[in-house]
Amino acid sequence: MSGLPERFVQTLRAAGRYDQLADLHHVFGRTPDAIAHARRNVARDNHHVTADSDERQS
Predict the structure, then answer these.
(1) Which has the closest alpha carbon to 29: 6, 57, 52?
(2) Looking at the domain assignment, is residue 1 inside a domain?
(3) What is the phi/psi pair of residue 28, to 5°?
(4) In terms of residue numbers, what domain contains 29?
(5) Is 53 a member of any domain?
(6) Is the pTM of this model over 0.70?
(7) What phi and psi values does residue 34 have, to the nearest 5 degrees?
């Protein structure tokens, strides 16, 4: 998550979600940083692998 206006941050904090996301390192000041983090997660977790691609590799 990145670039949120303060009014949304306050709402997310009140709901307990902002701090939870921040603790997971999913809050960024800049969108390019958020995108880079997401790409690292996808590469690490093999999000791009589907059941179909697993079957083709067998």
Answers:
(1) 6
(2) no
(3) -130, 145
(4) 6-46
(5) no
(6) no
(7) -65, -40
Tokens 């904090």 belong to 13
Residues across the chain:
58
The string of DSSP letters for 24-39 reads: TT--BSSHHHHHHHHH
How far apart CA 24 and CA 17 sit, in angstroms, is: 11
Cβ–Cβ under 8 Å, residues 33 and 2: yes
Q: Report the distance separating Cα 1 and Cα 21, nearest Å.
A: 8
pLDDT digits (tens, 9 = 90+) for 1-57: 898 899 999 999 999 999 999 998 889 999 999 999 989 888 887 766 666 555 545
Which amino acid appears at position 14 of this protein? Answer: A
